[in-house]
Amino acid sequence: MLSTFLRRSFLAIMTFFMLTLISYAILLKNPLNASLSTPHFYSGYWFYINNLLQGNLGISYLDGESLTRTIFAVLPSTLELCFTAMLLAALFGIPLGYIGGLSKKSWITHGVRSIYFIGFSIPTFWLAPILLYLAATQGWEISAIGQYNLLYEIPTKTGFPVIDMWFVNEPYRLKIIQNVLQHLVLPSLVLTILPTMEITRFILLRTQQLLNENYIKIAISREPSKFRILTRHILRNSLPQLLSQFPRLFILLITQCMLIENTLAWPGIGRWLIDAVGRQDYNSISAGVMAIGLCILLINIFTQILMFILDPFNKKGWYVK
Q1: For 49-59, what is the mean pLDDT?
Q2: Does residue 103 sit in helix, strand or coil?
Q3: What is the mean pLDDT of residues 164-182?
Q4: What phi and psi values does residue 280 have, to the nearest 5 degrees?
Q5: CA 99, CA 30: separation in Å to the nearest integer?
Q6: % pLDDT > 70, the chain
Q7: Long-range contacts of 269-272 (CB under 8 A, 24+ apart)
Q8: Bridge partners, 59 (sequence order)
Q9: Distance CA 99, CA 230 (A)
Q10: Are 128 and 260 in contact (CB under 8 A)?
Q11: What are the C-alpha distances in Å from 99 to residues 103, 115, 202, 205, 227?
């Protein structure tokens, strides 16, 4: 177990090291930072690492704002959108996958397969403006862009408006909650399509694989109730393994956020990075790449810890390897 822990820790450290090199290389694209690479590429690298470990990402040379403060202002908006979409994807994808996997009628299984094939084929950058147009022309309540109406003032407690809105002490508090949720619906629904299809496909294939195992066949012969088979055997042998897909799904959501935030004027790190690329603000690009990379790295570590706790087969592997 110790050797596996050390190996995975070393892998995480090497990933962080490669991430800092990429971020530092982007930083050097700015002519004002050329002195850091004098006389060698790595001359200012340790100075950059020291500032990074202190939480200092520098400033933007275009507006003079602290990049650390800016990252903490835009990153929660993206994480709020990603985690909401992930929650919706789990609520929709897990039951759909089990329905397709447990059904004895082939047309239901083929129907579920057709759904996730169609979902994989839908381009979100095309669907988002179409839905926004339909919502606006049809008078839907979700025809809104941005995170919430700027006429409302939500004090920053956690950085997540969907959480901070509950701390508002105003007589129109219900209006604020309604407004925040209305703005959250459209981007979340668009963003949840691909992870829903991924979860559906994984659960369906995993369920069909488990149904072919001998111990499941014996359990079915003894217990004809599908609900008991599902709760006693299939759930506990499929849901923990779904956690292994979480880092990949999160990366998928982050990349989709770049398009959704720019289309729906969502004030997240994706839209901020696209603006930084357009302005050639290499300091901001470097800080944004570093922030997103660290989020993915931390989520990967957190997922491995959860898998170690919940999945007995994974726990056994830690002792055997």
Answers
A1: 85
A2: coil
A3: 85
A4: 55, 40
A5: 54
A6: 94
A7: 269/71, 269/74, 269/75, 269/77, 269/78, 270/78, 271/74, 272/70, 272/74
A8: 66
A9: 11
A10: yes
A11: 6, 12, 13, 12, 11
